[in-house]
Sequence to fold (197 residues):
Amino acid sequence: MTDRLEAQFVFLNEADRLKSVLRATTLCDGSRRENSGEHSWHLALYALVLADQAGPGVNIDRVVRMLILHDLVEIDVGDVPIHSANGAAHGSEASLAAEARAADRIFGLLPPDLGAELRALWAEFEAAETPDAIFAKSLDRVQPVMHNIESGGGTWTEYAVTAEQLESRVGAKIARGAPRLWDYVKARSARFFKVSA
Fold:
């Protein structure tokens, strides 16, 4: 029992480092960059509050668990903003490989049974093939959009994001798991993008 508890607390203490990983997105009030620990907590709250937007068969408890775990790999890899390097860095082979190594290390700190369970949940989120993971990914994309709207355009200005880029990099993923959420945030974000004549 002592060895198991020791491993659990080693993991929990390591997870605390997520609070030191700064994201590109600011807080809603624009006062500072959000950290990845805050982002994970906020997404779990998004899942609870927006559960009525989930499709049939989505288990919100599993979605919350995924969202609490999904960015732990950023302890090793850092935040890779979706619009950085003109959208090429996020989801690149190198980035995905680095995240997988980080997941192996971080979840490997836990007792093997618990580590395997949580590592599998993280991998399910990343694959975004199950209803739970698809909805979780939608929320992961919608939260930064709301922060950018609330902060007056936020990182969209910083990264010179176009409406088309927002649609392809973010909107398609939101719409896949929560179409009404995409309709809502797309309409609210329109004022930040110039309409081509």
Notes: The mean pLDDT is 93. The longest helix spans residues 131-150. The radius of gyration is 17 Å. Residues 14 and 24 are 22 Å apart (CA to CA).
